[in-house]
Structure formats: structure tokens, C-alpha cells
Amino acid sequence: MSLSTSSATRVRYALLGVATANAFLLYLDRICMTTVVHSPLFLRDVGLSEAHIGDVLSAFFLAYALGQPTAGWLADRFGPRRMLVVYIALWSACTAMTGFAGSLAALLTARLACGLSESGAYPASARVISRWFPYGHRARANSCVAFGGRVGSALAPWLTVATIAALGAWRPVLWMYGAIGFALAAATHFVFRDDPALHPWTNEAERELIGGSGPPPPAPDHRFPWRALVTHPGLWLLSLGAIGLNFGWAFLITWLPKYLQTVRGLSERDANFYDTVVLACGIAGILFGGWWCDALTRWFGQRWGRRLPILCGGIVGALAYLTCPLLHGAMGVVVACGLVAFATDSANASVWTFAQDIGRGHVGATLAWANMWGNLGAAAVAKTIPRVLGKTPQPADWSKVFWMLAAAFGMFAVTSLFVDATKQLASSDPHEA
After folding, report:
1. How many helices (H) and strands (E) does the chain have?
2. Whole-angstrom distance, CA of residue 161 vs CA of residue 38
3. What tens digit of pLDDT does each residue of 85-104 get?
4. Which of 28, 218, 406, 408 has a CA between 20 and 30 Å from the CA of residue 203?
């Protein structure tokens, strides 16, 4: 006999709240450097060229991408609670240390280390959600975590430029962000457990509610599923789509403020403010995407329910970017890029849930695999755009950038037609039937 759900505790929501706060800091620490490296105070202090700024920005994404498989496996192997505490403490230390950097080499080293440290955060959070939330609520729980990240990304440009202006220096901003991270690492250690059965705050009703709503999650598998990952065709297609998605989205957090200043004539403060507005549109997309993915799954089944948000998000993002070169005013571009942010984040919950559906006992490694390829796409943006534009970019050169971004979203949409959330990873256990 099932226990009454009204008597169930709500510990899972405490974990979700801390995971959402961690995602906020994850993106705040990631994106603040876009504002810092374009700040006049930073340029006067360190004096980097545009090409070197691209190198600093791409260094994070490259390390973040390449660190994904190992970090995801570590979350599966040692548990998300333990590893998240380590990851948060490390990336917070790296953010603070960036505030002491005075050369290109020091900045590159700090950002590479920060990228490696952050690479395990989302895979570990995905594993927590797969263990702590009922099957029919996972997309919405994923959206809450991603919501925290998008709030962080939206506020990072405005918050960072305002704090730099208030303090009259860029270095203390990074020290402050680092200190916040150590507090969140302590909160994660206190609130998180790897499984509901291990948490002293849960009761039997909550454990039954979580475990009785769908297929039971497989037992953790501590081996790294290399063969299963590289032989799963749907995961390769999802990873290819993730490259397109991140390539298209990363423009918003790396070069959009520069475009609004140099081509559309906005001031630094206004450009960063409107970049915050653009990224805030992703918050609405996140909240909509989780509900939409769960609803579509109920209406059309698992295969198309996971697929349709990706297809629609890719089409909308591509069309929005294609309109940007045709628009005459800065506000039109802001609206179009806001639509890109909304489309991107409306699809993100589906990407996460797909990895949870097929991952078996390797949820962390599966999401990390797709995330690795996606962030290689993000790293490519920071390096590619300066080279497309050249030393003296003209409006026609920026048009080429927008066409390239639209093509990336088109690839994201097309690959969704061939992914199937019902096809799980092959078992890495040779004795499993």
C-alpha cells in the first residue's frame, strides 16, 4: 500500500534550491570575464589585443569541454555530493586567483583551471536530479537548475560592470565572487546526499514518491562507459546538435556587447545592460522548456516528446539570427537575440532529459559527453569570430557571423530528427542480460 503523498517530506526541493544557487554562481563566474576583459580598467591594466581576448575567453570553454568526460565519470564514481563540493571550491578559488593575474599567461592558466573545475557541475547535478525527482518531474527539475544558470548569465554583465564601476577596480570583483563560492560549497555539503535513502531528513513517503513514479533508476556503475558512449548513434547526433546549439548561443555571452557598441553605437554600460536583457529572455525559455518537454512527453510519448523542443528551438534560433543583419536599429537586434536566448533555453531541458533517459547507470558520464562536444562549439565561437571579422571589421563581416550562427542552429534542429530517447546506452556489464 502506498503511503500518502501529503505526508511526504520535501527534502528534494532543498537540494534543488542549492543546486539552482550553484548553477547561478557557475554562470556568474563563467560569464563575468566577458565584461572584465572588455572593461577599460582591465585593458589599461593588462592591455590585451582582441585576438588575445578571444584566447582568454575560449580557454575556459576549451578546458570546460575537455574536462567533461572525466568530471562526469568522477560524479558517477564517487557520488555527486562529494564531487560537487570539490568542484565548487576549486572553481571559486580559480575565480579569486584570476583577480591576481597580470599577464596573458596567468589569465590563460587561471581560466583553463576554472574551466576544468566547472566541468563536473552540471553532470553531477543531473545525477542528483535523476535520483531525487519522480520520473514525470525531471524536465521541470532540470529547468530549475538551468534557470539558476541563466539568471547568473543574465545578471553577470550588468552586475559585473556595475560592481567594477562602484569599486573603481576589476580585481576585487573576482575576489568577491570567489568568496561566495566557498559559502555555497559548504551549503552543498550540508544539504546534499547522493540518494534519498541516505538523507536523514527524508521519510518513507518521500522515498516512495520518488521511486514509485516510473522505472527505477539503475544502480550506479563505476566503470567509464567508453564503448557504450562511442557506439550510441543517438548520442553522437545529440552531441553534434549540442555543438551547433552552443556555437550559436555563446555569441550572446562573448561578442554581442562588442557588436552593440561597435556596430549599433551603444555605450559600454548600455551594451552590457541590453546583453543582460537578452540573456534574461533565456530565463523565460528555461521555465517554459521544462514544462513543455514534460507536457509533450505526456502527449506524444517519450521519443517525440524529447525531440520536439530541440527541433523547434533550433528553427526559431536560426530564423532570429538571419533577421539580425536586416534590422536597422539596436533594439531590433536586442529583440532578435532575446528570441535566440529563449529558443536555446527552451530546448535545454530536453537535452538534459535525453541524457538522463538513455544514461542507465552513467547519467553523469552521458550528459558530460554531450556537454563536452557542445562546449567545444562554444570555445570555437570565441576563437572564430575575431578571425572572421579581421582587424577592421565592416558590417558585411558581421553579416557573415550571423549567417554562421544561424547555420549552427539549423544543424541543431536537423539532428533532433534522428535522436531517440527510448534507446538506452548498451550495458557495460558483460554479465547483464
Report:
1. 17, 0
2. 10
3. 999 999 999 999 999 988 89
4. 218
